[in-house]
Design brief:
2,3-Dihydroxybiphenyl 1,2-Dioxygenase, domain 1, alpha/beta, 8-stranded mixed sheet, GlyoxalaseI/FosfomycinResist, VOC family protein, 9-stranded mixed sheet, globular, Glyas_Bleomycin-R_OHBP_Dase, 6 helices
Length: 311
């Protein structure tokens, strides 16, 4: 069996100039729970998730995605990953060590080929979480993270080779070639995906709701708060999940979703979906048709590359 150290997506960390505005958005409008803060850093948990936090916000004069974090099966897997990355010439941000973020744990950080920081950790303490009640429109967990890349094929191969991700499905266009690769580290359709974009950046971070009722109520709450809806509500074909894409106060795309497909991995064969078929983008037909202007909403600003965040 190939080396498959990754168990799940842990958190997405963002740096922003207007810290308090971003903090208020995630804690009030988006429905996350602030669990800790320390000198311009705030940590937000999803009430239904045992993860210590799913979003970290840090004050910085430059907007950027600080890192994306994944869970590992064991400390031994973290150590083995560090050795394998070193042998392949991958630049480490730091060697495996004890972590001082909420929940602690043992992890390493490295740069992927695009220059974004990736954290992989094990033995992180879990958080007391609870069942999300019917019609309670707060995120259950962080569902998935999608990034933009100018070389999505190369980045896909990196995550498959080094982190053991498996390709689930591909979006393509007859005119532009492959546009998005969905990657999984568990039976969930995808925890990570790579989109073709004009520069390296965060495409979107997605948050799972309890069900369709809660998903729609969360969408409505965000709209009533004046949050900019960029696409949706609708239901994708690949993954079979619902989508409502919004912009946070700094232009990062965040998504409410639910009912992401759970696969029978032994029977699954990767599919290819043509984005020019409107059903591929939205089975319901309720969202605006995919267009160049809609696609540009998820390009985001160019990220800070090959520079580790201070914390």
């Amino acid at each position: 069996m190939s080396f498959q150290p990754i168990t799940h997506l842990r958190h997405v960390d963002l740096a922003v100039p207007d810290f308090e505005r971003q903090r208020a958005f995630y804690g009030t409008t988006w429905g996350l729970t602030e669990i800790a803060d320390d000198s311009g850093i705030a940590f937000f948990a999803a009430e239904g998730s045992p993860e210590q936090y799913v979003v970290r916000i840090r004050a910085d004069r430059r907007k950027r995605m600080d890192l994306v974090a994944f869970g590992a099966v064991s400390p031994g897997a973290v150590d083995e990953l560090a050795v394998r990355l070193g042998r392949s010439g991958v630049q480490l941000v730091h060697e495996p060590r004890a972590l001082d973020t909420p929940g602690g744990g043992y992890g390493l950080r490295f740069f992927d080929p695009d220059g974004r920081v990736v954290e992989v950790s094990a033995d992180v303490g879990t958080r007391a979480h609870r069942k999300i009640e019917e019609r309670e429109a707060v995120p259950v967990r962080l569902s998935h993270c999608v990034v933009n890349s100018r070389n999505p094929e190369g980045l896909r191969d990196f995550y498959v080779r080094h982190l053991g991700f498996r390709l689930t499905d591909t979006l393509y266009s007859t005119h532009m070639g492959d546009l998005m690769y969905f990657l999984r580290c568990s039976p969930l359709h995808h925890s990570f995906a790579i989109a073709r974009g004009p520069h390296v950046s965060l495409h979107h971070a997605s948050f799972e709701m309890r069900g369709v009722e809660e998903y729609m109520r969360g969408t409505g709450r965000a709209l009533r708060a004046g949050t900019r809806l960029t696409w949706g509500p609708g239901r994708h074909l690949a993954g079979d999940n619902t989508f409502s894409y919004f912009h946070d106060p700094h232009g990062n795309t965040v998504e409410y979703t639910t009912e992401l497909a759970v696969l029978e991995e032994d029977l699954w064969h990767p599919g290819r979906y043509d984005v020019d078929d409107p059903v591929t983008q939205d089975q319901w037909g309720t969202a605006d048709p995919m267009s160049e202007s809609v696609a540009k909403e998820q390009f985001n600003d160019p990220d800070v590359l090959f520079e580790a965040p201070p914390v």
